[in-house]
Amino acid sequence: YYGPTILLSLHLFGSSSNPVYSEISSVEAASILAAINVAATYIAFKYIDRIGRRSLGLSAYAGMLAFDLLGGILLMRGILIGALIAFAGFIVFFAYGVGGTGWLIQAEYFDTRIRGRMAALIAFIDWISNFVIIEVFPVMLSTIGLAGSMFVFTALDALALAIVYLLLPETKGLSLEQIVKLFGEHRVTEIKKYSKKELEKTKPLN
User: Fold this and answer.
1) CATH number at 3-172
2) Where are the domains of the chain?
3) Would you say 63 and 89 are in contact if contact means Cβ atoms under 8 Å apart?
4) What parts of the chain have a pLDDT lower than 70?
């Protein structure tokens, strides 16, 4: 949401004597980052059935954590072009492992009886979270700065990584019926330990 504003604040484009050129260049750079987002999302959906949902989630949050941390450190040291590269790396990992696959996962994990309601609830939570970010991020910038904000996001990435590692099972290659069985007969903390072979004994793949 604040891509052009953040890039403009780095003073990497143009000069203070030509603010219009700087703003245009910042928007162009943000557009390039958006294109990277689209490309990474396409690659994720193309290979998600080969790589797996859990693997994408784990690698994505690990990559986001690394690039958020790197971006914060580089900003503190004044290496602004390096920070820009870190932003691009963050976007790649977000797009291919979180941005799109989350919507696929929520469509697969819920029984058809409640899928519509759960999809609506998840969409509501997603947009509420977006609203919170929109409102809070400018306050963070004005109080702890961009580098401090990156460190806050690093902590959130670590929390998300732990949640995916502990609670998200791999459903690659499973039918909807098997996924429902997986969630219906086991506690959440046991799901990731439940093997695909055990599922195949009770209900064959379609």
Assistant:
1) 1.20.1250.20
2) 3-172
3) yes
4) 12-26, 182-206
